[in-house]
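Q: Okay, next protein. This is 3-deoxy-manno-octulosonate cytidylyltransferase from Iocasia fonsfrigidae. I've checked the sequence twice, so it should be correct. Can you predict the 3D structure?
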Amino acid sequence: MKIVAVIPARLKSTRLPNKVLTNINGKPMIQHVYERVSKADLYDVVVACDDKKIYDIVKSFGGKVMMTRKDHINGSSRIAEVASAIDVDIIINVQGDEPLINSKVINQVIEAFSDEECVMATLKQKIENERDIMNPNCVKVITDKNSNAIYFSRYPLPYLRENKAQDYFKHIGIYGYKREFLLDYVKMEPTELEIAESLEQLRVIENGFKIKVLETDCKLVGVDTQDDLKRVSKLLKHNNV
């Protein structure tokens, strides 16, 4: 299979403006992401951007980049534009604000497609910090016995009626799609649960498709705040990832 990672990168960000171009220990964030993603078992890596500043930076460090429309409502729509223009079997969607991304994580997603029936895959991780269980920004996921997603929610899942010990899992936002499924998916209308939770992956479940969810123990640190940026910079500086 021809597997390509696409990194959607937009310039505007509410909490950290221009964050994908933020300098981290001498390199823009997008370069850290690109170089780490490139270590995975992939045919190619492409940045999908909406601004010439990002385009020029990626070109300057020798990366592959494609300019996409500015009117995309989410990353899935942006990578679908790339998928429609290239010869590929599987698309891996890696966020542009994950400078500590581990190639092992990407390879885990790729492994899901050894099952020919798999059309979409993602990851989960056991929640270790109890505060994250009630944190609506930490998306929880529950799966069936075949590791397919039952539901994603910002609310703690499952509800513990008898207060018994229970493992909770957070969703790790890295996705893999079969190309044709991705192109069909972005044409689907937003669904009620998707809108209620503001979680676009629920559209897949509501339309009757399965999402394979594999567990990973790799630690990821996305960058949304200045504190995140300082933490990532420190970890990279000391090669602690």
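A: Here is a summary of the prediction. The first helix runs from residue 29 to 37. Residues 3-239 form a domain with the Spore Coat Polysaccharide Biosynthesis Protein SpsA; Chain A fold (CATH 3.90.550.10).
Q: Noted. On to the next one.
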